[in-house]
UniProtKB/TrEMBL annotation:
Residues 134-247 form the GFO/IDH/MocA-like oxidoreductase domain. Pfam families: GFO_IDH_MocA (PF01408), GFO_IDH_MocA_C3 (PF22725). Keywords: Oxidoreductase. Residues 5-123 form the Gfo/Idh/MocA-like oxidoreductase N-terminal domain. GO terms for molecular function: nucleotide binding; oxidoreductase activity. This is Oxidoreductase. It comes from the Bacteria. InterPro entries: Gfo/Idh/MocA-like_OxRdtase_N, Gfo/Idh/MocA_domain, GFO_IDH_MocA-like_dom, NAD(P)-bd_dom_sf. Belongs to the Gfo/Idh/MocA family.
Length: 325
């Protein structure tokens, strides 16, 4: 592989525009191609971000011999099928979160990537944000002592109609999979897999959750209190409490640029800016892996994705949220 990674983008929607912006910040990557089922949309996106080519079908993008890795930015329910298609055509994949709708889908994607010796990673950009890396460092150093509990929320008021992606069951709607995944992931990062999961939700007429509240318990007695909602603006902060103090990831915690450490009643504020829109760090992780011929990231391995979706599957069972009908 050349020293320049050639990217493709599958699904040029809103999140893909942020990703493409940050792709231009990397001196080790170029946007080789983009694909949309609407050729005009692909052409416009290509013109804006100066990709070498564009396509009116996803299959044509995956068939492009010059592309090294494809970023999949479509709605959740299409991730598995599209990831498998790209892998089967010999392309490495970075797939937006959640990478699959359930653990069964995830496992089929992992098996395909491993069988073909191709790189695969879930697009959990939070893991690579500088503030998140600092949080991990502080926890590894026992900066606030024994971890006792955490609180994290993610909420905004959506005026989108029932046909929008946020509320449409056929598009994987609901607050849990769209934004609840972030507090759940942070709890996984800090505490590992929960020993006990309790959850309650408020459901919409379309059958997805507009509000979800979760309580996780751990074998050592630690607790995590987590919320997600489309019903109201919430602080969207995360605070981890330990035996000697606390660490707060300021809003929005999943790509925070400010951490507050409180010890013995004294606060220390850390400014930790990210580059671009924040996707740059995730892009560089993938570039590093590909240039070093790795098939998965040691910082965000496939097992982490499986652990995350397994917890989300359990929460869905608790709130009777099914996407099978």
């Amino acid at each position: 592989m050349d020293k320049i990674i050639k990217w493709g983008i599958l699904g040029p929607g809103n999140i893909a525009t942020l990703f493409a912006d940050d792709l231009q910040l990397s001196d080790r990557a170029i946007l080789q191609g983009v694909a949309s089922r609407n050729l005009d949309k692909a052409r416009d996106f290509s013109s804006t971000y100066q990709s070498h080519t564009y396509y009116g079908s996803y299959e044509e993008l995956a068939d492009d011999p010059d592309i090294d890795v494809i970023y999949i930015a479509t709605p959740h329910p299409f991730h598995c099928e599209q990831t498998l298609m790209c892998l089967q055509k010999g392309k490495s994949v970075l797939c937006e979160k959640p990478m699959g709708m359930n653990a069964t889908e995830m496992k089929s994607m992992f098996a395909e990537a491993r069988a073909r010796n191709l790189f695969l990673m879930e697009g959990m950009w939070t893991r690579f944000i500088p503030a998140t890396k600092k949080l991990l460092q502080l926890l590894n150093e026992d900066a606030i002592g024994e971890l006792l509990f955490m609180r994290a929320d993610f909420g905004f008021k959506s005026d989108a109609g029932p046909e929008s992606r946020l509320f449409k069951k056929s598009l994987g709607g609901g607050s849990l999979l769209d934004i609840g995944i972030y507090p759940v992931y942070l709890s996984l990062l800090a505490f590992g897999l929960p020993h006990e999961i309790k959850a309650m939700a408020r459901m919409t007429k379309s059958g997805v959750d507009s509000y979800c509240s979760m309580l996780f318990g751990y074998a050592d007695g630690a607790k995590a209190v987590l919320e997600s909602t489309f019903e109201a603006e919430t602080p969207t902060e995360a605070t981890l409490f330990g035996s000697r103090g606390s660490i707060k990831l300021q809003s929005r915690f999943h790509h925070s640029e400010n951490i507050t450490i409180t010890l013995n009643g004294e606060e220390q504020n850390l400014k930790l800016p990210y580059r671009g829109n924040g996707y740059f760090h995730e892009i560089e992780e993938v570039n590093d892996c590909l240039l070093n011929k790795k098939t998965e990231s040691s910082n965000y391995p496939l097992q982490t994705s499986l652990d995350l979706i397994t917890v989300l599957d359990h929460v869905r069972d608790e709130i009777s949220l099914s996407y099978n009908s």
